[in-house]
């Protein structure tokens, strides 16, 4: 195996993908913003603020004539002629109700004027076209339905302009008609509302108000709607109805009765244009149609992308919660089974045969003495084999100077942890082999408990329970919780499902035959423990978890070190999964592991972390644009289910629960760090970049500075 | 203390044993391919952002003021009430 041109294949890509990812997050934010504006819910058309004084409003405007033409510096107001009705519909188009209303109008051969809301019009251009083709008139009802009296001029222009573009794209025409949201009759125009209405005139719009409000938005019943819509004494009227904003079945029914009723009273039906006496729509220019098309494209893109993402996010959340509940149930089953074993024994004689313990060590001079002493104090007969992998800090000497019986120290040129382990295996005398890390400490009973499952000849490997020794500080505390949950929920579940993905390098026991059938420890991947575990599974051995075999290990204390450690685990796990991908199609135990274990890993350790940033983005989006209560509730459900897993794991492991209050805080920094690691690993895997560790691994560690990845490579392989 | 001369092969090679570590692409073709498509997707995203910005920043569309100020309204409707609007 050679590694040509070191450094040639890394270079820019790792930085580039973070840049691309940030760009995509900004794009996602914009897409969500567009979607939020387009999908925004608004209140029904009733006044939000009580009317104020009307000193500045010209009397003629307040005279009650519903159509205000303020376009030319003069105020012209139009009344609807007697025995004439202008039907107007606000707040649409709506995919359910607008077609039904248009159908009623067509059946009676009656035109109406539809004041459309831009955000709906841009989502349903076909409905706008349908209104137009049915011979009705289109007017503008702003884009997001704000009260124009309270919005600044630039926003009012945007609201009108974007709606105009949506109408232009759908029908090829622009409209001069506007109805301000929350407006009512002309008499109700007050000092607050008047400036906006005057500005509407200045920007070229004819404002259409109402004389007869059917109050159909309140669903008062068909009779009431009809009654409200019929003027007295044959007066002309602008009748206000709604074709959106909820169940409009009453409106549809009322309209179907209203039209013949009015006809029988001698009424004719007109549009606003008929009353004003001019064509209130004009052909859109080519630029307007093009801009309209772009707007529709942008809206369609954002709504489509958002709905796909929303489904993914919902699915992710549900999967995470379901998985946790399932794992808790499985862990419970394991705990019960384990308790029964504890009380009544295994039904087989205890394992008393001597064990070889292999301690690969690279620059562990500080910890190695403690590690080896803890082994020498074991209450099970052990042979300790320390393999010094070319340390430069006198690790081998430190181990040898202990002068402990039963401890052999081997020194070899640096060749990486897998090679060191293989050296140890080759030197080991016994058939039961325990592997541990140079910075891990065993209890006196750890080895004995760890090998007891080997009473069952079908068991090829046993995973122990790793605990964090250095729990001080936030990072230590977080990792401690993670380890407790990882070992007491996840690993118990894997045991029950018989799909253990990893026997941790910090504490694991193996049958020699299982090791040789797996081909020894391979250096194909950066996670040799996962790779080895998968290989043993594929060779047909059962792998179990023994929670009572406790090892204490040191975990990274700095973010950088933690990042490198997790990067190796994550990348190494993905490598191992790929290497053993064929297990999915194999028969027997290997296939069981492949179909359960590999798919579980692929789903929850690869795919889900990729979607995790989306969860955070949607949390913010939900708080801003959706129902904040429901958003927070969904998020709480997630945190609570994690808390439940944490509580149960602590109970199973006899750990105090007081550290668990840190668990919700994990959502803020730790979780993002963890998914960033997985994203980085996946990108590295896909691009085929060679990691520095892989290079150093072969070229020798001498060039590696302190705190470099190679340091992390040799340490804590505990893996929660 | 025992000394070993050199690191031998970690284990006997198997048939499916990869020549290079899993995933490593020595020729860098996958990386170039990923970079290319990553940039394409990012450009599409940026195009989206640019179009949204342009759509919002462009000159607002106003209805054509197609009716002359002094044009008489159609005969069949009453002459509308009219008054100068104070700015």
Main features:
heterodimer; A: 720 residues; alpha/beta; TIM Barrel; Spore Coat Polysaccharide Biosynthesis Protein SpsA, Chain A; 2 domains; 8-stranded mixed sheet; 6-stranded parallel sheet; 24 helices; 20 strands; 51% helix; elongated; disordered N terminus; disordered C terminus; B: 87 residues; mainly alpha; 1 helix; rod-shaped
Describe it for me?
- The complex is a heterodimer of chains A (720) and B (87).
- Chain A is of the alpha/beta class.
- Chain A has 2 domains: 61-302, Glycoside hydrolase/deacetylase (TIM Barrel); 362-470 and 486-714, Alpha-Beta Complex (Spore Coat Polysaccharide Biosynthesis Protein SpsA, Chain A).
- Chain A has 24 helices and 20 strands.
- In chain A, the strands form 4 sheets. An 8-stranded mixed beta sheet of chain A has the order 15-14-13-16-19-18-20-17, sandwiched between helices. In chain A, strands 3, 4, 5, 9, 10 and 11 form a 6-stranded parallel beta sheet that branches. Chain A has a 4-stranded mixed beta sheet with strand order 2-1-8-7.
- In chain A, helix 2 (97-107) runs parallel beside helix 8 (249-264), helix 17 (528-538) runs parallel beside helix 18 (559-579) and helix 18 (559-579) packs across helix 22.
- Chain A is elongated and about 115 Å long.
- Chain A starts with 12 loop residues before the first helix and ends in a 6-residue tail after the last helix.
- The relative contact order of chain B is 0.04.
- Chain B is mainly α.
- Chain B is rod-shaped.
- Chain B has one helix at residues 29-57, and strands at 2-3, 81-84.
- At the A-B interface, helix 1, strand 2, helix 5, helix 10 and strand 15 of A face strand 1, helix 1 and strand 2 of B.
């Amino acid at each position: 195996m050679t590694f040509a041109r070191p450094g040639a294949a890394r270079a820019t890509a790792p930085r580039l993908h973070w840049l691309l990812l940030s760009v995509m997050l900004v794009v996602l934010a914009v897409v969500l913003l567009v979607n939020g504006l387009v999908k925004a819910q608004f209140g029904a058309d009733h006044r939000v603020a009580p009317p104020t004084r009307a000193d500045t409003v010209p009397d003629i405007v307040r005279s009650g004539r519903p159509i205000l033409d303020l376009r030319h510096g003069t105020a012209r107001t139009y009344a609807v002629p007697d025995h004439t009705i202008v039907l107007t519909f606000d707040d649409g188009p709506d995919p359910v109700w607008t077609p039904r209303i248009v159908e009623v109008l067509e059946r009676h051969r009656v035109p109406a004027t539809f004041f459309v809301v831009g955000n709906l019009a841009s989502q349903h251009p076909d409905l706008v076209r349908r209104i137009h083709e049915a011979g009705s008139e289109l007017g503008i009802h702003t884009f997001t339905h704000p009260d124009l009296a309270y919005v600044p001029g630039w926003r009012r222009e945007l609201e009108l302009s974007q709606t105009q573009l949506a109408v232009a794209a759908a029908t090829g025409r622009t409209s001069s008609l506007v109805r301000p949201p929350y407006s009512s009759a002309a008499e109700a125009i007050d000092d607050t509302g008047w400036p906006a209405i005057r500005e509407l005139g200045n920007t070229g719009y004819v404002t259409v108000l109402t004389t007869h409000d059917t109050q159909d938005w309140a669903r008062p019943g068909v009779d009431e709607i009809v009654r409200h819509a019929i003027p007295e004494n044959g007066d002309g009227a602008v009748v206000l109805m709604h074709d959106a904003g909820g169940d409009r079945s009453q409106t549809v029914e009322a309209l179907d009765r209203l039209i013949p009723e009015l006809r029988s009273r001698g009424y004719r039906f007109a549009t606003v244009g008929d009353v004003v006496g001019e064509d209130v729509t004009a052909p859109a220019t080519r630029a307007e149609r093009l801009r309209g098309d772009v707007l529709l494209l942008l809206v369609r893109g954002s709504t489509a992308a958002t709905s796909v993402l929303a489904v993914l996010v919902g699915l992710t959340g549900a999967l995470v919660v379901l998985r946790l509940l399932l794992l808790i149930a499985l862990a419970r089953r394991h705990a019960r089974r384990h308790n029964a074993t504890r009380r009544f024994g295994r039904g087989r004689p205890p394992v008393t045969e001597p064990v070889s313990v292999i301690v690969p060590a690279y620059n562990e001079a500080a910890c190695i003495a403690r590690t080896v002493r803890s082994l020498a104090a074991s209450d099970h007969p052990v042979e300790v084999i320390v393999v010094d992998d070319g340390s430069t800090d006198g690790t081998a000497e430190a181990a040898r100077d202990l002068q402990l019986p039963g401890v052999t120290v081997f020194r070899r040129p640096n060749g990486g942890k897998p090679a060191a382990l293989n050296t140890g295996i080759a030197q080991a005398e016994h058939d039961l082999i325990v592997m541990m890390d140079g910075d891990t400490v065993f209890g006196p009973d750890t080895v004995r408990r760890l090998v007891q499952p080997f009473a069952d000849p079908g068991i090829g490997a046993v995973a122990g329970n790793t605990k964090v020794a250095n729990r001080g500080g936030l990072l230590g505390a977080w990792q401690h919780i993670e380890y407790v949950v990882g070992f007491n929920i996840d690993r118990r579940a894997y045991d029950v499902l018989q799909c253990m993905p990893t026997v941790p390098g910090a504490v694991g026991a193996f049958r020699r035959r299982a090791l040789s059938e797996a081909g020894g420890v391979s250096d194909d991947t950066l996670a040799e423990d996962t790779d080895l575990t998968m290989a043993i599974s594929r060779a047909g051995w059962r792998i179990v978890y023994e929670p009572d075999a406790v090892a204490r290990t040191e975990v990274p204390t700095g973010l950088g070190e933690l990042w490198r450690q997790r990067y190796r685990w994550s990348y190494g796990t993905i490598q191992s999964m790929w290497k053993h991908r064929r297990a999915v199609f194999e028969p027997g135990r290997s296939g069981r592991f492949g179909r359960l274990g590999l798919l579980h890993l692929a789903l929850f350790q690869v795919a889900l972390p990729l979607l995790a940033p989306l969860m955070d983005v949607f949390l913010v989006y939900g708080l801003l644009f959706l129902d904040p209560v429901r958003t927070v509730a969904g998020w709480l459900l997630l945190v609570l289910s994690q808390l439940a897993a944490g509580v149960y794991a602590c109970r199973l492991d006899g750990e105090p629960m007081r550290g668990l209050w840190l668990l919700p805080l994990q959502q803020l920094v730790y979780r993002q760090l963890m998914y960033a690691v997985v994203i980085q690993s996946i990108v590295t895997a896909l691009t085929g970049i060679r990691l520095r560790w892989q290079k150093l691994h072969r070229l020798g560690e001498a060039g590696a500075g302190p705190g470099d990845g190679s340091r992390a490579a040799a340490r804590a392989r505990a893996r929660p | 203390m025992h000394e070993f001369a050199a690191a031998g092969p970690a284990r006997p090679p198997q048939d499916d044993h990869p020549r290079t570590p899993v995933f490593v692409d020595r020729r860098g073709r996958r990386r170039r391919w990923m970079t290319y498509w990553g940039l394409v997707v990012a450009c599409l995203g940026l195009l989206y952002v640019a179009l949204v910005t342009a759509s919002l920043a462009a000159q607002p569309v106003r209805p054509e003021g197609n009716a002359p100020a002094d044009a008489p309204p159609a005969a069949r409707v009453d002459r509308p009430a009219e008054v100068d609007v104070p700015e």
